[in-house]
Amino acid sequence: MIYPIYTYGQPVLRKVATPIDTTYPNLKEVIDNMIDTLAHADGIGLAAPQVGLGIRLIIIDLSLLIDVKPDLKDFKRILINPEILEKSGDTVADEEGCLSVPGIHEMVPRFNHIVIRYMDPDFVEHTETHNGYIARVIQHEYDHIEGHLFIDHISPIRRQLIQGKLNSILKGTTKCAYKIKAVK
Questions:
Q1: Can 141 be counted among the known catalytic residues?
Q2: Which pLDDT score, from 0 to 100, does residue 68 have?
Q3: How far apart are the first and last CA of the chain?
Q4: Which pTM value belongs to this model?
Q5: CB within 8 A of 25, min separation 6: which ones?
Q6: Distance between CA 46 and CA 69 in Å, rounded?
Q7: Backbone phi and psi for residue 28, each to the nearest 5 degrees, phi listed first
Q8: Per the residue annotation, which of 29, 86, 106, 141 is the catalytic one?
Q9: Rounded distance, CA 110 to CA 143, Å?
Q10: Number of neighbours of residue 1 by Cβ within 10 angstroms
Q11: Is the predicted pLDDT of residue 184 greater than 80, yes or no?
Q12: Over the stretch 89-123, which tens digit does the pLDDT of each residue have?
């Protein structure tokens, strides 16, 4: 099932998500639906709050980037209850967009190095170190389960310049190629 993507203004996007355990109902189905939703929206990452679920679950699939970043084409992760243990290295600004903030792309500073601990769908714990673009994507998705959006990392002036687009998202007048659930 393809879930609608919750857009800017939806309260679930501003709440810290709750950890889950093996008793979470229909978890495999939720994961499969999120994978399908991500593919349908032509995205590279999706956090559960973006589909209205206030749980600590992230799906990442960088295979869409095969033309521009072929070395990342096999990077796929399902992160349950992730925790960033370390952020370090240089802070690098790069352009980001978000399925929950359609039509807006901004330069966002992120740490270039992270260490993350998470559970896979079998609830086996993993600790991984990532750099560069993968570290950026994980930090972006991790923000979602912490109640933050990428636009929270831009300057007040840039935020003011995009306010009209944000208002359009709030009003539900922004057009998307994927199914959304706007505030209206």
A1: yes
A2: 87
A3: 23
A4: 0.96
A5: none
A6: 19
A7: -60, -40
A8: 141
A9: 11
A10: 9
A11: no
A12: 999 999 999 999 999 999 999 999 999 999 999 99
Phi, psi for 15 (deg, rounded to 5): -110, 145
* Cα–Cα distance, 44 to 40 (Å, whole number): 11
CA distance 93 to 119: 29
Query: In whole numbers, what is the pLDDT of the chain averaged over residues?
Result: 96
Domain positions in the chain are 5-181
Rounded to an integer, what distance in angstroms lies between the CA atom of residue 130 and that of residue 14? Answer: 26
Cα–Cα distance for residue pair 157/54, rounded to 1 Å: 30
CA angle 41, 47, 52 (to 5 degrees): 85
Both tokens of residue 85?
């243990």
**Residue in the block written with tokens 């206030």:** 54
pLDDT at 21: 97
What architecture is the 5-181 domain classified under in CATH? Alpha-Beta Complex (3.90)
DSSP string, 46-67: EEGGGGT--BSEEEEEGGGGTT
